[in-house]
Amino acid sequence: MRLHTNPILYYCLVPVAIAIWPALVWFKFVPQAELQKARWKQYVPEVNAAAAEILKLEPDRLIERSPQVKEQFDYMTAVSRTAVKCGIPTGSYSHTTGMVTKRSSGQKSQTATVTLKAVSIVQACRFLSTMQVDWPHLECTSINMTQDRGAKDRWTVKLGFEYFYD
Hints:
Shape: elongated
Strand content: 25-35%
Structural class: alpha+beta
CATH class of the largest domain: Alpha Beta
Order of helices and strands: HHHEEHEE
CATH superfamily of the largest domain: Ribosomal protein S6/Translation elongation factor EF1B
CATH architecture of the largest domain: 2-Layer Sandwich
Radius of gyration: 26 Å
CATH topology of the largest domain: Alpha-Beta Plaits
Number of helices: 4
Largest sheet: 4 strands, antiparallel
Distance between the termini: 73 Å
């Protein structure tokens, strides 16, 4: 008798599997979700404090196209300020910018490539997130990471950006 051709096996297995699934969800997955929820709840005060500090330091950044924000986007200024914020030395980064182009929709954009040399993963991630938080119309289009030989946490990171002007 072949096991997979016996229909009685399926008549027994399918209801058992259907009965086990809710028990598995109730006794295994729900408690794990509760633990993860409790773990994430401990970060809420930190996030709220950081958001309050951002609101206090630069409230106009939260209002898109705010008239109080007089500064125009410039890759050189944005990259150098962000590198200083992230602790990246002056000689460890460079950037090249493309021409400002106009899309068929009429929106202007400009591309750039930023190269970070001999940085840690944390510095690279902090740089990328700070750039995108500070400039909401900036999009990261590509990331290329190459580990430096002979060092555990030293990377050369090439980031492609595109900024969309209003």
